[in-house]
Amino acid sequence: MTAGTAAGVFSGGRLDPGTAVLLREVPDPPASGLGVDLGCGWGPIALAMADAAPGLRVVGIDVNPAARALTEANAHRNGLAVEARAPEEFAGPAPIDVLWSNPPIRVGKAVLHEMMRTWLPRLAPAGEAYLVVNKNLGSDSLHRWLEQELPVTVARVASHKGFRVLRVRPART
To answer: 36, exposed or middle or buried, with CB in 10 Å at 0-12, 13-18, 19+?
Structure first.
């Protein structure tokens, strides 16, 4: 797979180490349904998701127009079907079957928590989210916050090179 990156887009010039850990640790996405890469940057997560599951509708979400353009260009370059949207452009009623993210931790807790409050409740009843967070940037506190504030269950499914991969599922009622 080939991809272009750019300055001004997260991890311009290389695959972020946290993203590499996430991609190594997540299970294959479902063959169909809706997959979301939240905070897609130049698209490595969305591209991997689309490559692994060609029948899955994959949408990369990012606030940065340059990131969205790169994600779509990289998908086109690799013959993959990926849409890139601004958060406000993606208000579809369809539940999310799988969400993979290396969330933008450095935006601060208030913004990060609002992202989680907005997107995680959109998981399908059997849906799953996988988040990769650096231990030194608050993976454990995010884990606790998610369990306390949202109707979800959270499990640490991997820990590698200082990164934790959290699996988030809707709580069963």
So the answer is: buried
pTM, entire model: 0.91
Q: Collect all residues with Cβ–Cβ distance below 8 Å to 70 and sequence separation of at least 6.
A: 3, 4, 5, 6, 9, 41, 42, 43
Select from 65, 54, 81, 55 the least CA-distant residue to 6. 65
35, 99 contact by CB (below 8 A): yes
Average pLDDT value for residue range 145-152: 94
SS (H, E, C) the chain: CCCCCCCCCCCCCCCCHHHHHHHHHCCCCCCCEEEEEECCCCCHHHHHHHHHCCCEEEEEECCCHHHHHHHHHHHHHCCCCEEEECHHHCCCCCCEEEEEECCCHHHCHHHHHHHHHHHHHHEEEEEEEEEEEEHHHCHHHHHHHHHHHCCEEEEEEEEECCEEEEEEEECCC
Contact in structure between 104 and 119 (CB atoms under 8 Å): no
> Is pLDDT at 8 greater than 80 in this prediction?
no
Q: Which two tokens stand for residue 160?
A: 């590698």
CATH class of 17-170: alpha beta
